[in-house]
Amino acid sequence: FVLEITEGLWKEKVDVCVVGAGHAGCEAALACARLGMETVIFTMSVDSIALMPCNPNIGGSSKGHLVREIDALGGEMGKNIDRTFIQSKMLNKSKGPAVHSLRAQADKAAYSAAMRQVLENQENLTIKQAEICEILVENSNNNKRITGVKTFTGAIYECRAVILCTGTYLKARCLCGEAITHTGPNGLQAANYLTDSLLSLGIEMRRFKTGTPARMDKRSIDFSKMEEQKGDEKIV
């Protein structure tokens, strides 16, 4: 990429900017970089790359098919969970094969660290810890064309394409009972500025709510009254 510093303004020129380093962002950035495009992936924190703040598993009844499709297209999710899972189980085996679904429980910290290592070692890919606040466009013959992104600190990254993988960070709030906290997932910083930039470009925004399972104190649980569900002995 090309670096330019003019009057204190930091500018870089790359091919692709990926905003967000969750599961989708990691796959998008790796796909672009592996196609030979100079790619930058932006994350609020490098410690949150491929983070699993909710249920720490890959696959399962609702999304196992998606993992298979990503794997077939050369993606990294399936490979990464193979390296970091703590239990693997084929669900719905009492039913027909059409609804069988593989689910792998992840070591959250290991999965995130392993995916970060893959990104760091990928040619043509750079990780930037920064909040993207604005999508830059130019008007040409009454048509708007994306030219880059701007960070909270004022750095500009000019590019040919921007891929938004922001997840649940945009003006995020966490609801716990009647308490509302303006924060991102897992206590991380919310992205509070990009929404306004998207609205100014005529993009319609809607609120999206997710649900996180309750956390329980291990010391408060009587495990003698619970039934252990073991993983499959033969890993498929």
What labels describe this entry?
four-stranded parallel sheet; five-stranded mixed sheet; 30% strand; 236 residues
Description of the structure:
The chain has 236 residues and is α/β, with parallel strands linked by helices. The protein is built from five helices and 14 strands. It has helices spanning 23-34, 64-72, 77-84, 108-121, 194-200; strands at residues 2-6, 9-13, 16-19, 39-43, 57-59, 85-91, 101-106, 125-129, 132-140, 143-151, 156-158, 161-164, 174-176, 179-181. Strand 13 (174-176) and strand 14 form a beta hairpin. The longest helix has 14 residues, at 108-121. The radius of gyration is 20 Å and the shape is globular.
Task: Reconstruct the topology from this structure.
Elements lengths: L1 E5 L2 E5 L2 E4 L3 H12 L4 E5 L13 E3 L4 H9 L4 H8 E7 L9 E6 L1 H14 L3 E5 L2 E9 L2 E9 L4 E3 L2 E4 L9 E3 L2 E3 L12 H7 L36
Parallel strand pairs: 2-11, 3-4, 3-12, 4-8
Antiparallel strand pairs: 1-2, 5-7, 6-7, 9-10, 10-11, 13-14
Helix pairs in contact: 3-4
